[in-house]
Amino acid sequence: MRSTLKIFAQHHVCIFPKNQFNILLYRCVPFIANGVSLTTLLDPLKVKGYTFRNRIVMPPMQTGKATFEGTITNRLINFYVRRSSALGLPIVEHAYVSQVGKMGPKQLGIHDDSLIGGFEKLAKGLHEVRAPAVVQISHAGGVTNKKVIGTIPAGPSERPKTRMLKIDEIENICEDFALAAKRAVKSGFDGIELHGAHGYLLNQFFSPLLNKRKDDYGGSLENRMRFPLLVVGNVRKHLNGKLLLYRLGSDDLAPNGTHIEESIIFARRLEQFGVDIIDVSGGMCGSEPKQLRQVKGYFVPQASEIKKTVSIPVIGVGGITEAQFADELVREEKVDLVAVGRALWRDPKWAEKAVQTLRNNN
C-alpha cells in the first residue's frame, strides 16, 4: 500500500500520498510560511456553528427598495439574492427598530410584527443560494430629522434640533432593539448586526463628540460604553444562539473624537458580552470619509489593530474593489473577513468573478 500522511484540518481530515504532501498541504491546512498566512479569502470560516463558504462579506448598504412603511419588496429580495450566490456573508441593510429611529424614506423597517412576513421571504431567498441571512438593526437617534419621524429627534445630549434622551427612554430603546432581534430570529434569520457606527445612536453614545451627558451614560469611556453594551446584552438574550455582530465605529477621525485606543478597549468588552464578529468601520466620520476615499482598505488599519486584541473574527472594509487585494488582507492576517460594498452594488456577479479569479491564480 502506498505510504500516506493524514493531516487534520479545522473541520475535516485530508489523506494523500507523502510525495504530494508539499503541494496539497497548501490547500488543506492554513499555516504560516515566510510570515504570510495561507488562510485565504476563499477558505471557509466557522463561527458559532455556522460555516461561511468563504470570507467575502457584503456590508449593509441601504438600497431604497423597501416601501415607505419599511416593508420588504420583491425588488429588495432580488437585490440580495442576485448578489449572494457566491458570498460568505451577506449583511442586509440597516432596519430601524422604532419609528423614531428611522433615518429616511424607504428605509427597511423591523419595528413591527407585521413586517415579519417579508423577512421570512428574504431569509428563504438567501438560504436557497446557500447564504446565511443576517440583518443589521439600527436607531438613528439624533441624526434623523423631524420631517422623517414626526417629532423632535433625541440623542445622548441636547444639540440644535435634538433633545437629550431620558433614562426611561434609553431603557425603552434597549427593549426596541431586543424586540427587533426577536423578529429577525422568528423570520428565520441566522443573526443580526447592531449598527454602532457611522453616527447612529449606539455610535453617538460611544463618541465624545456627541455624548456630553453628566450621568452614568456619559463622560468616561466606561460610561460611554454603557448603553451600547446594555443593548448587546439584552439583544443576545433573545437570539437563541444565533449570530451577533457589532459594527464598530472605530475612529471619528477628529481630534476630540473616538480613536483606536478606546475602540480596542470597547472591542474587548464586546467580545466579553458575547459578540461573535466585530465589523470595523468609521465612527462619526461616516462610512466614506472624503480624506480617505483614495485609500484602498481605508478602515483596515483599525480592524487590524482590533484583530490583534480579540479572539473573535474581525471584518475589514473601506473602498475594496479588487479580489487579489482582499485575498492579501486575509493571507497577511490583517482581517478575518473582507467587506466589499460598492463593487458588489455595481456588479451583482462580483463575488462569483472574484472566486473564479482567485482560483485561476492559485
Keywords:
362 residues, TIM Barrel, 16 strands, globular
Write a short abstract of this structure.
With 362 residues, the chain is α/β, with parallel strands linked by helices.
Describe the protein:
The protein is of the alpha/beta class and 362 residues long. It has two domains: 1-30, no CATH class; 37-361, TIM Barrel (Alpha-Beta Barrel), CATH 3.20.20.70. The protein has helices spanning 21-28, 74-83, 116-128, 146-149, 167-186, 201-206, 221-236, 260-272, 300-307, 323-331, 342-346, 350-361, and strands at residues 4-8, 13-17, 32-33, 36-37, 45-47, 50-52, 56-58, 89-96, 134-138, 154-155, 163-164, 191-196, 243-249, 277-281, 314-316, 337-339. It starts with a strand and ends with a helix. Residues 1-31 have low confidence and may be disordered.
CATH class of the largest domain: Alpha Beta
CATH topology of the largest domain: TIM Barrel
Portion of residues within helices = 25-40%
Please, how many helices? 12
CATH hierarchy: architecture of the largest domain? Alpha-Beta Barrel
Radius of gyration: 21 Å
What is the end-to-end distance?
31 Å
Q: Determine the strand fraction and express it as a percent band.
A: 15-25%
User: Biggest sheet, in brief?
Assistant: 8 strands, parallel, barrel
CATH superfamily of the largest domain: Aldolase class I
Name the shape in a single word: globular
H-E order: EEHEEEEEHEHEHEEHEHHEHEHEHEHH
Global mean pLDDT: 91
Broad structural category: alpha/beta
DSSP, total strands: 16
- Low-pLDDT sequence parts: 1-31
Number of individual domains = 2
- Please give the order of strands in the largest beta sheet: 7-8-9-12-13-14-15-16
